[in-house]
Structures are given as structure tokens and as C-alpha cells.
Design brief:
Layout (H helix, E strand, L loop, with lengths): L1 H12 L9 H40 L1
């Protein structure tokens, strides 16, 4: 709860800054975010889907 309170306090007290985000930095940020999302997707596929697929193959080979 204190973390949420401090986060809201910092958001309320934040002052605007004059900063320029060029196209290179913007594209890099988007690419990094997509990389993280695709990495998490591959983690789920590797940890969850692959063992299930192997189990299905094992069950079918027993028939």
C-alpha cells in the first residue's frame, strides 16, 4: 500500500519537462518493448506448450 501511495504522490507532483524523443529513440523503445513481449511469449511456449505437446505424442504412441 505504501508503494501505491508513493507512486500516486510522485505522479501528482511531477512537473512537465521539455524533452525531445527522436524517431531513433522512439523506434528503439518500441523494438525493445516488442522484444520483451515476444520473449515472454516464447518463454510460455517453451515452458508450457512444448511439454504438453510431448505428452500428447507419448499418449498417442501408446495406443
Amino acid at each position: 500500500m505504501p508503494f501505491v501511495f508513493l507512486s500516486l504522490l510522485f505522479l501528482i507532483l511531477a512537473k512537465p519537462v521539455m524533452a525531445y524523443v527522436g524517431p531513433g529513440l522512439g523506434a528503439s523503445a518500441v523494438a525493445a518493448a516488442l522484444g520483451v513481449l515476444l520473449g515472454l511469449l516464447m518463454l510460455v511456449v517453451g515452458v508450457v506448450w512444448y511439454p504438453i505437446k510431448q505428452l500428447i505424442r507419448w499418449v498417442r504412441s501408446k495406443k
